[in-house]
Write a structure and sequence with these properties.
mainly beta; seven-stranded mixed beta sheet; four-stranded antiparallel beta sheet
Amino acid sequence: QVQLVESGGGLVQAGGSLRLSCTTSGSTSGINISGWYRQAPGKQRELVASITSGGTTNYADSVKGRFTISRDNAENTVYLQMNSLKPEDTARYYCNFQKLAPWDRGTYWGQGTQVTVSV
């Protein structure tokens, strides 16, 4: 099992910045991918950014150039640095951890953290 604890959400004005953190614990070794997803009211959950255990990153087009995902393997923590925030970034942000080894697969979610961007 893997446990995820998120922090760092809050209220910020448009143009501001926030950094989200997601700390994992439990059985986290092996090939994996960590990601941040978001879900706004009335909308489907969508991928914001992801990073593999090897460091390869992927971003939604809507956040490219503004958000940066990174990971600190020693601290088992994944970060999402969000700059130049827009009101349309308002959503609940969820941390996701996927174990990809064929003999040890699993998908885990955090409880989410709210990000609200005011005009």
